[in-house]
Hints:
Number of strands: 3
Helix content: under 10%
Radius of gyration: 19 Å
Distance between the termini: 29 Å
Strand content: 35-45%
Shape: elongated
Largest sheet: 3 strands, antiparallel
Amino acid sequence: MEYERPPISQPIPEDAVKVFSGVIFDVYQWQQLQFDGTYATFEKIKRNDVALVIPIMDRWNYLD
């Protein structure tokens, strides 16, 4: 069963360049205009969705 995902609230800009492609995540960089007129390099990591479940039995015990 597939679910429709909500749109990304901070998408990667179209002019971003993939600078690293790994097993767990990819890294994108782009130049962004600042308020003072200069440019700065911004980065964003993209990875697949993950979930982690830690079963807690009582106050001090958990399953690992």
